[in-house]
């Protein structure tokens, strides 16, 4: 383990540490314009915290709160103590900005290094960071973590597949950081360039930043001949390095000595039963410049009961099912995009990409799933294609309980974004 003591703390010792750090966080947060006001209105001071469970006495912080305080409302110190800012990619609206002191950057790099160590990376590894740099935390966040671990780090950035392949071959890259929706596209491209992924030097991929299913992971592993590990983070909680798989690949360890995690019912705000799915809520307890308390991530997951075989004692979360905002309601049934991905990525004829379109049929909402089919299956035989289409629609109906429209499209015909994939497109206004 990278930090043996911190990663193997007994539960009681960990919770004691969390309570101490939470108390300290409240003291610090009270120096920010936003929390000083919130604390005054809710009569909150550090003395109300005795155990980590007392975190429930604190109010939630939402994305809207962060937006309303943009840019400086949550800062606990004067601006000259800060050395970096990042902003969320704005997938769901106006971005939010996060500021870091040098100490915050150090803490983050340590969390990242620990995460990478957990999946087997060592200082002898060469890591190519294929995510966009700039404001997106997947660039510099992974970069500094990799350097902290001592890996030779190749800041390739996103896009330009040919050049990526050249760098990988020239510098014997053993690890990739790559967005899952791009990984499948990349694998196909590597083959198209005449290389066999099995002959490439890589062995480990860190994949994250967007929801993906176990099937998609398996597909990435097979197509790239690589071991792929799930990486979870969000800019409000630094960025990547919040929760990470270990070599067991059985859920992501949340680094609980830096974050207090809760899972709540998104409607009521109450904690869900242990092991039930709900919204992840997180509190920073080692950040000094911009602490955030009980942040509503909108991400849906569950705690995985029991201990991990690796010996780390922090709890694990299941892969993210999606964002609460991504839920579609069709004929009264709740549907998550990942339910759809789970089915289609398990069908051998399906290629790398898909998109879910929300459409109107007469007066009712309907979804149309456009699925790319592998070149070898996209034959002229209409009957075979119709059979495939029906089969996919049937399997989807079994999973989501309503029958969606299914459209089979040619390999590489769905536009591929360089950043996070947009899986759901609402066409209800534009199509009549
Ligand atoms: P944005 O909300 O604009 O995308 P971020 O770049 O901060 O901003 O992205 C954080 C979000 O990305 C998370 O809240 C989550 O929805 C998603 N995400 C990050 N890592 C994963 C992962 N491993 N699995 C699923 N979703 C993830
Ligand atoms: Zn583990």
Automatic annotation (TrEMBL):
Uppermost EC category: ligase
Pathway named in the protein's UniProt entry: Aromatic compound metabolism; phenylacetate degradation
Keywords of the record: Ligase, Nucleotide-binding, Phosphopantetheine, Phosphoprotein
Enzyme Commission code(s) on record: 6.2.1.30
Domain of life (superkingdom): Bacteria
InterPro entries registered for this protein in UniProt: Adenylate-forming_Reductase, AMP-bd_C_sf, AMP-dep_Lig_C, AMP-dep_synth/lig_dom, ANL_N_sf, PA_CoA_ligase
GO molecular function, one term: nucleotide binding
Domain annotation AMP-dependent ligase C-terminal: ranges: 332-428
CDD domains noted in UniProt: PaaK (cd05913)
Ranges for domain AMP-dependent synthetase/ligase: 78-282
GO biological process: phenylacetate catabolic process
Role noted for this protein: Catalyzes the activation of phenylacetic acid (PA) to phenylacetyl-CoA (PA-CoA).
Protein family according to the UniProt entry: Belongs to the phenylacetyl-CoA ligase family.
Subunit structure: Monomer.
Protein name, entry field: Phenylacetate-coenzyme A ligase
Organism for this UniProt entry: Maridesulfovibrio hydrothermalis AM13 = DSM 14728
Record lineage: Bacteria, Pseudomonadati, Thermodesulfobacteriota, Desulfovibrionia, Desulfovibrionales
GN (gene name): paaK
């Amino acid at each position: 383990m990278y930090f043996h003591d911190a990663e193997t703390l007994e539960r009681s010792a960990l919770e004691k540490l969390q309570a101490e750090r939470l108390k300290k966080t409240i003291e610090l947060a009270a120096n920010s314009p936003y929390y000083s006001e919130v604390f005054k209105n809710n009569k909150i001071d550090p003395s109300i915290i005795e155990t980590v469970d007392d975190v429930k006495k604190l109010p939630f912080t939402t994305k809207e709160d962060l937006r309303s305080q943009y840019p400086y409302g949550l800062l606990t110190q004067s601006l000259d103590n800060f050395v970096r800012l990042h902003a969320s990619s704005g997938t769901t609206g106006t971005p939010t900005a996060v500021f870091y002191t040098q100490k915050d950057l150090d803490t983050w790099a340590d969390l990242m290094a620990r995460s990478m160590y957990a999946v087997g990376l060592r200082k002898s590894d060469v890591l190519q960071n294929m995510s966009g740099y700039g404001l997106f935390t997947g660039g510099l966040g992974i970069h500094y973590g990799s350097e902290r671990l001592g890996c030779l780090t190749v800041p390739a950035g996103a896009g330009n597949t040919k050049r990526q392949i050249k760098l990988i071959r020239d510098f014997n890259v053993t690890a990739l950081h790559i967005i899952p929706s791009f990984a499948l596209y990349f694998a196909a491209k590597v083959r198209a360039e005449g290389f066999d992924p099995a002959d490439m030097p890589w062995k480990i991929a860190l994949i994250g930043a967007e929801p993906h299913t176990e099937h998609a992971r398996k597909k990435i592993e097979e197509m790239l001949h690589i071991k792929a590990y799930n990486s979870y983070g969000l800019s409000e909680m630094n960025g990547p390095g919040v929760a990470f798989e270990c070599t067991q690949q059985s859920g992501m360890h949340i680094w609980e000595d830096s974050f207090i995690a809760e899972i709540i019912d998104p409607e009521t705000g109450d904690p869900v039963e242990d092991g039930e799915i709900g919204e992840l809520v997180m509190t920073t307890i080692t950040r000094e410049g911009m602490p955030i308390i009980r942040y509503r991530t909108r991400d849906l997951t569950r705690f995985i009961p029991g201990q991990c075989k690796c010996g780390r004692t922090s709890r694990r979360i299941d892969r993210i099912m999606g964002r609460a905002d991504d839920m579609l309601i069709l004929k009264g049934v709740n549907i998550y995009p990942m339910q759809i991905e789970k089915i289609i990525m398990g069908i051998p004829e399906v290629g790398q990409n898909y998109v879910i379109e929300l459409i109107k049929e007469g007066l009712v909402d309907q979804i149309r799933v456009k699925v790319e089919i592998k070149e070898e299956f996209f034959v002229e035989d209409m009957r075979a294609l119709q059979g495939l289409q029906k089969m996919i629609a049937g399997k989807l109906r079994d999973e989501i309980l309503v029958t969606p429209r299914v459209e089979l499209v040619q390999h590489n015909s769905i536009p591929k974004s360089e950043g996070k994939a947009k899986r759901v497109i609402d066409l209800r206004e534009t199509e009549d």
